[in-house]
Amino acid sequence: MPERSDRAVLACYAHPDDEQGVTGFLHRCVLQGVRVGILCATRGEVGQIADPALATPETLGIVREQELRRAAAVIGVHDVFFLDYRDSGMAGSPENADPRAFINADPEEAVGRIVKVIRAFKPTLVITFDESGGYGHPDHLAICRWTTEAFYAAGDPSRYPEAGEAFAPARLYYSSFSRSIIKQFAAFLAQNGIPSPFPDVNPEQMGLADERITNTVYVAEYVDLKRRSLEEHRTQMFPNTALSALPAEMWRAFRSVERYALAAGVPLPQDAPEDDLFAGL
Questions:
Q1: Are 86 and 42 in contact (CB under 8 A)?
Q2: What pLDDT is recorded for position 193?
Q3: Which CATH number is 253's domain given?
Q4: What are phi and psi of 270, to 5 degrees?
Q5: Is 98 inside a domain boundary?
Q6: Domain that holds residue 113
Q7: According to the model, what pLDDT value does residue 2 have?
Q8: How many whole angstroms separate alpha carbon 159 and alpha carbon 98?
């Protein structure tokens, strides 16, 4: 039976499939009767396409929106919100200059769009990327920055009065891989002669520093479900990638733990269980 129906979680990300780092926690919330929503800034329009039969550059955004909706449904999430910005592409790519790109949005407007969703959905917890964006993707950095500002602005009635009645979420969490895990992954790739997917990014600048992690959620029982959710992002399922080279047991271990850092809001009680992001609320 659901434990609480008055709680809600809103996971804010930049592209379809970014949500995959938190699907275990989101699914557990669904099972506990917590309302769960996913906010996505773009539709990943300029991503690569694993199989030309799945999409064209012109249709990729539409296809990836549907992939996200199906991936979310696998874990029991049906509230999916899009901010309707365009994918900015990887750092240094020509798409960075597109005036429709998320990174070129007017910050006040972008924050306002997130505030509007927060006030309508009324999440207890807001989750987004950490300040590194995981690996420095420009859109990941932007969604972290603007979600953080929206977390504060949503509860301020003097800001964005047109976006609905003020509502203040209780906590903001950043989610990412721990830096120690990223280093282990980099070492495995190097030892096996596998090119890094992020050759220009220093592992010391990726993910969450271990000492910042406030909550660790163990989701081994959901790993198979998480894989099914991930596989709904068919256009992004490339063979022979660094992740696909992981041995099955390492992949399961990698996906069995999700890490979070409390970034703002109500402090956690000193004796809070490490897997309880709602502790004390």
A1: yes
A2: 83
A3: 3.40.50.10320
A4: -60, -35
A5: yes
A6: 8-265
A7: 45
A8: 28
pLDDT of residue 5: 66
Residue 264 phi, psi dihedral angles, 5° rounding:
-165, 160
Contact of 12 with 143, CB cutoff 8 Å? yes
In the chain, how long is the greatest CA-to-CA distance?
56
Distance CA 93, CA 182 (A): 24
Could you state, in chain order, the average pLDDT of each consecutive group of 10 residues for the chain (281 residues)?
74 98 98 97 96 97 98 98 96 94 98 98 98 90 98 98 98 92 82 78 82 96 96 92 76 90 97 96 96
Contacts 24+ apart (CB under 8 A), 62-67: 63/235, 64/15, 64/16, 64/17, 64/233, 64/235, 64/236, 65/16, 67/16, 67/17, 67/232, 67/233, 67/234, 67/235, 67/236
Measured distance CA(105)–CA(93) in Å, rounded? 17
Number of domains in the chain: 1
